[in-house]
Amino acid sequence: MGESGSGKTTIARAVAGLTPVTDGSLRVLGVEMKGVRPKDLQPMRPRIGFVFQDPATSFNPLLTIADCVAEPLVVHGRAASPEDARGRVDELLEAVQLPRSYGDRFPHELSGGQRQRASLARALALDPELLVADEPTSALDVSVQARVLELFAELQRELGFASLFVSHDLAVVDLLSDRIAVLYRGRLVEEGTGEEVLGNPREEYTRRLLASLPVPDPVAQAERREALRELRG
Question: Between these two residues, 26 and 219, which has the higher pLDDT value?
Answer without folding.
Answer: 26
